[in-house]
Amino acid sequence: MEMKKFDKQEFRYSVAYALKNQFRKTLEDATSQEIYQAVAHAVKNMIVDQWIASRREFEKKDAKTLYYLSMEFLMGRALGNNLINLTAYQDVKEALEEMGLDLNYLEDQEPDAALGNGGLGRLAACFLDSLATLGYEVYGCGIRYHYGMFKQKIENGFQVEVPDEWLKDGNPFEVRRSEYSKEVKFGGYVRVIREDGKDRYVQEGYQSVMAVPYDLPIVGYGNNVVNTLRIWDAQPINTFNLDSFDKGDYQKAVEQENLAKNICEVLYPNDNHYAGKELRLKQQYFFISASVQRAVERYKQNHSDIRKFYEKNVFQLNDTHPTVAVPELMRILLDEEGLTWEEAWDVTTKTCAYTNHTIMAEALEKWPIDLFSNLLPRIYQIVEEINRRFTEQIRRMYPGDEDRVSKMAILYNGKVRMAYLAIAGSFSVNGVARLHTEILEKQELRYFYEMMPQKFNNKTNGITQRRFLLHGNPLLAAWVTKKLGTKDWVTDLSLIEGLKKFAEDKTAQKEFMEIKYQNKVRLAKYIKEHNGIEVDPNSIFDVQVKRLHEYKRQLMNILHVMYLYNQLKENPDMEMAPRTFIFGAKAAAGYRRAKLTIKLINAVADVVNNDPDIKGKMKVVFIEDYRVSNAELIFAAADISEQISTASKEASGTGNMKFMLNGAITIGTMDGANVEIVEEVGEEYAFIFGLSADEVINFEKNGGYRPIDMYNSDPDIHKVLDQLTNGTYSNGDHNLFKEIYDSLLHASGMDKADMYFILKDFRAYAEAEKKIGEAYMNKSWWAKAAILNVACSGKFSSDRTIREYVEDIWHLDRVDVKL
Ligand code: 26W
Known about the structure:
Blueprint (H helix, E strand, L loop, with lengths): L7 H16 L8 H30 L3 E5 L3 E4 L2 H7 L3 H10 L4 H5 L5 E3 L3 H16 L3 E6 L7 E5 L2 E5 L12 E2 L5 E5 L2 E7 L2 E7 L2 E13 L6 E11 L13 H14 L14 H25 L6 H4 E6 L6 H12 L4 H11 E4 L10 E3 H7 L1 H21 L4 H7 L2 E2 L2 E3 H7 L3 E4 L2 H11 L1 H6 L4 E3 L6 H7 L2 H11 L21 H26 L8 E6 L8 H17 L8 E6 L7 H18 L8 E5 L5 H10 L2 E4 L11 H7 L3 E4 L5 H8 L5 E2 L4 H9 L5 H7 L1 H8 L15 H8 L12 H20 L1 H13 L6 H13 L9
Parallel strand pairs: 1-4, 1-13, 4-12, 13-14, 14-18, 18-19, 20-21, 20-23, 21-22, 23-24, 24-25
Antiparallel strand pairs: 2-3, 5-6, 7-11, 8-11, 9-10, 11-12, 15-17, 16-17
Helix pairs in contact: 1-2, 3-18, 6-32, 8-10, 10-11, 10-13, 12-13, 19-20, 20-23, 20-31, 21-22, 21-28, 27-28
The structure holds ligand 26W.
């Protein structure tokens, strides 16, 4: 790999030039934000030639193109990451230093691109990083939300949502590509026109918007490859362009303008919860129609046979959110390209592939047919025909089994079941960790698996070591390079197993623990600045950061903190390694119980942190506004990684991998990718507890269990639960946390008591937490376990995941880019 050499002088000019042209300022009078922007422009300058060269190279090779279709891309900040992947981070840091500027400080001026909720969105971002690094062509296709994931403020212990104005100062890395704009049509009706003995379907009386793409560069690591994240914005159609019938239709012009204004306004902040809002379906069709139109147009520029579209293109559907790609591609092939149904279906089902990211029932998208067919009349007709043929096929395979037909039909009970449409329209269906895929095959999707087992496959998730080690933890990254004697782990994480031989080496252990300590000091400083809380870097940093959801059981964690506090109060001289419990989580704005859990965590923190009796043996911290940028600091500083979901519920988890890569030890259930983490590192170097997925599923089939029995028979649990309603953590208010108390002990409506088995797993969890405290006393065991976790994390690079997708599903062509 030959990289262009960094030219310090040129870089300086480039920054000064951008400052002058953008802001008519010099370094002396520019603000930090302006300097960040100017530096970002200079970095974009370093990227564009590679960006152009990459397109040329892929085109020359006629490489197959992946379209990664996703409602979410949780990119985080771009500046530092781009510099890392340009292998220019150190050079630029030094160049800036000579100009009296601190790169770290400038990086902090950039708002996170938070165009995603959690795991699914961040996975998309890691995949883009790996695809560019491995030399494959991909367009990430998504939406240019004007407001990304809300900013979280904590006021009086409660979460308050603040709009995320990430574009307010502009986005220096984006390039608007109005030449690729596409019209997207909503509503109206379908007219059938008889033409040359064939029916032609045209949508009339519709409203439309113009989809305008903005491109962001995705830089591969040290290989000159630059791919594109293409996010679509909506613009009103110029009313002069309305057809003559509509000209002067003022009402329609206004409605179209509003449609355009609304579509890209905001990311829905629900993680794992389907709300069924019409605007969300508009968003889905909007970016899918534009992306598919462009993909077909691009293919036709250099290829004449649309029947072979699938040979050069593949669409990966990131969960069901982009599933309208199936009928939209059908529409274009049928109505615009004139293929027969059989031809169009052949192309579509060889182009589309679907990834499932959750088995949570409330996350499944099922659109009411009325809403769907009114908004997308032509698409709905096509879905009806897909469903007609699909159910016919089921009946042929299973004659007389109408029960099976109703369980598998795409249209059922007045709803469009998007997951089933995605499966029927795809050649591949994958889960995101081995256990998750098994549950899909044996439980959730078993009828589909029985009918078409060849479609099903597993792709265990991964993370990019470029962001989550090289950028996020520079001290550990340098140590890994020194110990391995090579930096090649940056593009081949399997090499990191070379650290195994240092696990028992005293010097290595000391160095490792010193680095962990420095990272804890860095996080402690962040916590002091942002929370005003002093934490002790010598205490165990026990961390749970992820979206707030009942199945992730942050509640079990804080109940355990309450339990431990009770123990300490009873026995203040109890010997224990000092502990800092760190939480970070956003709750969906309308998820009352999740928001109340945040309040509980903060309330417990208030009491515990201000109690002199316990002599600083424990602290509780809730980090405000958990997001990609502060996540990098948090993973680097963690001793313990809390992965405690109710078994069977967490499809994979990816935070678990980021912690492991940074040398934190997992306390967790046998769920999602935890199973594979434990398999890699060995059960003795993790703290595993609790019900298995099979046990949970069995309890669920048999109507749950009786948590009230645990409450009555276990005095410690009894006491902790009572403290939810006796005012201990609510200044005497007995009602504040009553809802949480009730959810644990009493069934309500459809919900069973303690649906997530918190009390059932509590004792086992407390035991595991206790073992952590004991293990930490043995410094050399701890260092060994932590080093082994790093050394065994090789499997969890998203480079490995992408290689598997390429081999089994995408079959992309690898390209070398020379400048
Ligand atoms: C329709 C509302 C909605 C929004 C987001 C439903 C479902 C989602 C996502 C599928 C939720 C999600 O992010 N799932 C997570 O995906 C990660 C990447 O595969 C996994 O690691 C997590 O376990 C899974 O919860």
